[in-house]
Write a structure and sequence with these properties.
The chain has about 325 residues and is an alpha/beta fold. It has eleven helices and eleven strands. Pfam families: DUF1731, Epimerase. It comes from Streptomyces prasinosporus.
Length: about 325
């Protein structure tokens, strides 16, 4: 198949590009900074010659959008909104104008669309959409609006010959440097991976292998459209999530952090506490109903695999440095 990945140079795009290319598919990445023969330049906001890559493609998986790993200033929040809405709109325009439109358009969304809650899990049928919770920062509602506008832009695109799926993805766990797992593992290794603000908030996640398999599953399942949660069936409280990660790496303790300590740490990391404090208790209702089988349904097994791969990658990097240094 020919698969087009707008915004395919980030962490998730790199995972998909690597896996789909290895499976023998022709993968074209739309990026602002093309570097490889399979990269095509685009600006994520206006139609251009890049739209020729969409015409005749089998699948489009749009991953474009400003990274959420930043301080949630008004300027950055607006950039998150605009980059997601504009790129989704223009992908829809390219599909609508195509002589041979793709059969399916998978559009990245986020599990952040659901409410901050502890009492029950959010699936697609019964989950509570966020934005009106009490006792949380006001700007958390803006994150929900970003997700809603993201999905609405795809849903309203006039592409009658293309099936549309919105991927409400939880945090994708991969040992690649710079990803969310890499950050969490670094905290655990430093002894800082303890409970944050009590640690009762739920962490929803998905192993990178299952993320790729779910994308392939949704491409093949012509009967599935609309919003689909991409999350492992076992979300768990942050304190337990980090306890498992520490144990798997071999770190005996993790210092707890109060809310104000989390604020200070997030500021130092140029990130935001919503990523640490919001309770994202999300489960994959539609995937399970459709018969998808997770290879890594539980965090203990997933953490073991990710840690093993992270250790192997570090060992490989060390050997490479040694060879370069000795050459």
């Amino acid at each position: 198949m020919k698969i087009v990945l707008p915004g395919g140079t980030g962490q998730v795009g790199t995972i998909l590009d690597r896996a789909l290319s290895a499976a023998g598919h022709e993968v074209v990445v739309l990026t602002r900074r093309p570097r490889r023969p399979q990269d095509v330049a685009w600006d994520g906001a206006a139609l251009g010659p890049w739209a020729e890559a969409v015409d005749g493609a089998d699948v489009v998986v749009n991953l474009a959008g400003r990274s959420v790993s930043c301080r949630y200033t008004p300027e950055n929040l607006r950039a998150m909104m605009d980059s997601r809405v504009d790129s989704t709109r223009v992908v829809g325009e390219a599909i609508a104008a195509a002589r041979r439109p793709p059969k399916v358009w998978l559009q990245m969304s986020t599990a952040t669309v659901y409410a901050h809650r502890f009492d029950a899990a959010n699936d697609e049928a019964t989950g509570v959409i966020g934005g009106t919770e009490s006792g949380v920062p006001d700007y958390w509602a803006y994150s929900v609006e970003i997700a809603k506008n993201w999905e609405r832009t795809q849903a309203e695109a006039p592409t009658p010959d293309t099936r549309k799926v919105a991927l409400r993805a939880a945090m994708v766990m991969s040992p690649d440097r710079g990803g969310v797992f890499d950050v969490l593992l670094r905290l655990a290794r430093l002894g800082l991976g303890g409970p944050v603000a009590g640690g009762g908030q739920y962490v929803s996640w998905i192993h990178d292998e299952d993320f790729v398999r779910a994308v392939e599953f949704l491409i093949a399942r012509e009967d599935v459209a609309g919003a689909v949660n991409l999350a492992a069936p076992g979300p768990l409280p942050q304190r337990e999530f980090m306890r498992v990660l520490r144990r798997t790496w071999g770190v005996p303790v993790g210092l707890p952090a109060t809310r104000w300590m989390a604020e200070a740490g997030a500021f130092a990391l140029r990130s935001d506490t919503e990523l640490l404090l919001k309770s994202r208790r999300v489960v994959p209702g539609r995937l399970r109903d459709a018969g998808f089988a997770f290879a890594w349904p539980g965090w203990e097994g997933a953490a073991g695999d990710l840690v093993r791969r992270a250790r192997a990658a570090r060992a490989g990097s060390g050997r490479l440095r040694a060879r370069v240094g000795g050459g």
